[in-house]
Amino acid sequence: MPEARPRVWVSQPLFGDIIAGLDEHFEVDDTREVTAWSPAQVARKLADADGALVTLNERVGAAEIADAPRLRAVANVGVGYDNLDVAALRARDIVATNTPDVLTETTADMGFALLMAAARRITEGERWLRDGRWTQWSFDTLLGHDVHSTTLGILGMGRIGQGIARRGALGFGMRVLYHNRSRLPDRIERNSRAAWVDLDTLLRAADHLVLVLPYSAATRHLIDAAALAKMKPTATLTNIARGGLVDEDALADALSAGRLAAAALDVFEGEPAVNPRLLALRNVVLTPHVGSASLATRRAMATLAVDNLVAALGRGPRAGDPPTPIAATATGATTAKR
Ligand code: 8YV
């Protein structure tokens, strides 16, 4: 009897031609429409799967794998993996993989775009114009804050943080400071034109602060009222990492009281729901978690996730190639992982 092919579950529609690469190795249970799977539904899908390809929408933890005796690999489409309980997966010898590197430059582009949009009030200006409020050119319309020659602060100096640092230093003549739990080797600091400072100094010195650090229980609400109070009232805050890093009510307080000039948020604690206080503010740029959303990069992410699943389940021409396993030290306040 021929050996039964492993079964894999693909939790969301990705690119059909890329997901088709799974067909030659596996029985594929794919998903044709964007679906909000409940934890119980995720558990049911995993129950008879050997592997799964999931996105940030699906949490996979101890409860979801409790009745999944065959599960051997979970390939996350994304570099952030706070949706996976890596310890629970490891305890069951289930390989967990993510998609670093392929999204670095695209996500750094987006971080910089958001920083500029907040500093120069771009989306606010567009809304104002579309609302028909531009009736006369005036000298002081929508005065913003400079980006060039200012101090860029980066919190979490992984690959994406380094990409933002290079953009700031080389493209905009910015002084770049960063904070990371551990200081980076000299060579990386030199390449990024960035200097390590402690968190307090970073908050006080940055004209534009960008969050690019991993989210975990240890970093939840790292940017709270006390942290925001240390920032310059002329500063901007950009978050392209995970919404839970910021206490959104404290941010709304600071923005509405003029204690912070502007913010740009691509991620939200309860996404896709957005704190209504943020929606009501004019000095915050809001985008729907699209940091890595260029066509080329999303295709590269899907391809890498497929390759990871094939490799982790030991199939196909790449059988035995190492997948991209999630790093061994999965948590930590400001460890570079992105
Ligand atoms: C992904 C992201 O689109 O990579 C990440 O961590 O946040 C995004 O780039 C998302 O994870 C899709 O699952």
Automatic annotation (TrEMBL):
Domain of life from the UniProt record: Bacteria
Occurrences of domain D-isomer specific 2-hydroxyacid dehydrogenase NAD-binding (ranges): 112-291
Composition bias, Low complexity: 326-338
One Pfam family recorded for the sequence: 2-Hacid_dh_C
Record carries keyword Repeat: no
Its EC number(s): 1.1.1.-
Keyword Iron-sulfur carried by entry: no
Domain annotation D-isomer specific 2-hydroxyacid dehydrogenase catalytic: ranges: 32-316
Positions of the UniProt region annotated as Disordered: 314-338
Entry GO MF terms: oxidoreductase activity
Coiled coil regions, renumbered to chain: none
Keywords (A to Z) from UniProt: NAD, Oxidoreductase
Group of enzyme by EC: oxidoreductase
Entry-linked SUPFAM superfamilies: Formate/glycerate dehydrogenase catalytic domain-like (SSF52283), NAD(P)-binding Rossmann-fold domains (SSF51735)
Family to which the UniProt record says this protein belongs: Belongs to the D-isomer specific 2-hydroxyacid dehydrogenase family.
Protein name, per record: D-glycerate dehydrogenase
